[in-house]
Design goal:
single chain, alpha/beta, Rossmann fold, 3 domains, 4-stranded parallel sheet, about 35% helix, globular, binds pyridoxal-5'-phosphate, threonine deaminase activity, pyridoxal phosphate, lyase, EC 4.2.3.1, Threonine synthase
């Protein structure tokens, strides 16, 4: 293995830390982030080399914080980028693409990427128990990857998650612990547990490794766009980590000569019922006011105290993007319009992305003449119940042709 992964560094003061299960700076409590020897990566990687790599997120291994070959999630990533012509027409932009992580492997969300990296690293550091604080998708992915790799796992979630997301963890025979309270309470408890037990909490003490996995969604977009940075990328935000890491992927691709530098905008999307990041952005401040009681059907995004919210705002501002949020009604409309035009059934988070993209185009933050990528991060079957009262009823008939003829409303 080439020596690309350098160390962990504080995002605030730049102090270096060893490549261990560490996530905050001892001096200023800034978050730690993986850094690399880019001059070495630049000499090593090329478009051709990446294209001939494995058909998975691991073709981007030189940009990931491991010291040995990956062992977890070898089939994760390289999800389709769809040329969404019908949706483009309805939303009124020249070109629109769907990065479709609703079909990611194994658990149908972008979280399969982050868990693959975190658990590969957990193996390198000889951890046997893995855990997480989750709004649902992370729990599903952690449980699946843990089962397939011989880890013991515990997942902690708010007790009131969607049934499909609870079952989607339990099926892997993980321990599911439902916490009475919002995600932020779950997360605080996990920090306490992580201080007491030697467990790899993928989004607590392993967060620097976990977070880097999100970059692969950004690299894949670039490659699938023909090694070009899209003019606009719209990304839904929970903690804000995915958004900052897609930008990091774009920056690293420029730095290592995989794409040409050009202006691009990164836009953030949230649900109005839990919009700490978009509210701060719109007010023009860096100061994020926590949302104590999130109230939205987009439960996967319902984080009231977003860990990377500050950095997400910086990224959106620096790139000339905008931050938008949408109501539950608009989320449902977003889910339906994506399904009806492109045949993609997204979860509520995808409805947030589509709904916000529509608003950004209407308001002119995304000009009609531009090229847009929407990051669709989770699968609609996991949150299907939100559509219950919003779809046409089925026609129930007796099994006779006369009865069938009566319900057909177009010419034979
Ligand atoms: C976790 C998640 C996100 C965003 O997560 P960040 O914390 O902002 O990185 C987006 N969509 C879905 C479906 C998720 O599960």
């Amino acid at each position: 293995m080439k020596e690309f992964f350098d160390c962990l560094k504080c995002k605030e003061c730049g102090r270096s830390y060893p490549k261990e299960a560490l996530h905050v700076c001892e001096f200023d409590f800034g978050p730690l982030e993986a850094t690399y020897h880019y001059h070495k990566i630049k000499k090593y990687v090329s478009r051709q080399m990446i294209e001939s790599g494995p058909y998975s997120m691991w073709r981007y291994e030189p940009f990931l914080p491991l010291e040995e070959e990956p062992t977890v999630g070898l089939h994760t990533g390289m999800t389709p980028l769809l040329d969404a012509k019908r949706l483009a027409k309805i939303l009124g932009v020249k070109a629109l693409y769907i990065k479709n992580d609703t079909v990611n492997f194994p658990t149908l969300s972008f979280k399969d990427r982050v868990v693959s990296v975190a658990l590969s690293r957990a193996k390198e550091l000889h951890y046997e128990v893995v855990s997480c604080a989750s709004t649902g998708n992370l729990a599903n992915s952690l449980a699946a990857h843990a089962a397939a790799n011989g880890f013991k796992s515990y997942v902690l979630i708010p007790a009131d998650l969607e049934p499909a997301k609870v079952i989607g963890s339990l099926v892997y025979n993980t321990r599911v612990i439902g916490i009475k309270g919002s995600y932020d309470k779950v997360n605080r408890l996990c920090s306490e547990i992580a201080g007491k037990y030697r467990w790899a909490f993928v989004n607590v003490n392993f967060r620097p490794y976990y977070a880097e996995g999100s970059k692969t969604m950004g690299f894949e977009i670039l490659e699938q766009m023909g090694w070009k940075i899209p003019d606009h990328t719209v990304i839904c935000m929970a903690s804000g980590s995915l958004l900052t890491k897609i930008d990091k992927a774009y920056q690293e691709a420029i730095l290592c000569g995989l794409v040409e530098e050009k202006p691009y905008a990164i836009h953030g999307a949230q649900a109005s019922g839990c919009n700490p990041i978009t509210a701060a952005f719109k007010k023009g401040t860096d100061l994020i006011r926590p949302i104590a009681n999130p109230n939205t059907i987009a439960k996967s995004l319902a984080i009231g105290t977003p860990a990377d919210g500050y950095y997400a705002i910086q990224t959106i501002r620096r790139t000339g993007g905008y931050a938008e949020d949408v109501t539950d009604q608009e989320i449902i409309e977003g889910i339906k319009i994506l399904a009806e035009t492109e045949g993609v059934f997204a979860e509520t988070a995808g409805g947030v992305t589509v709904g916000c993209a529509k608003k950004l185009i209407q308001k002119g933050y995304i000009p009609q003449e531009s090229q847009v990528v929407l990051c669709i991060t989770g699968n609609g079957l996991k949150t299907a119940e939100v559509l219950k009262d919003h779809l046409n009823p089925i026609d129930v008939i007796d099994p006779y042709i006369q009865d069938f003829d009566k319900i057909v409303d177009f010419e034979k």
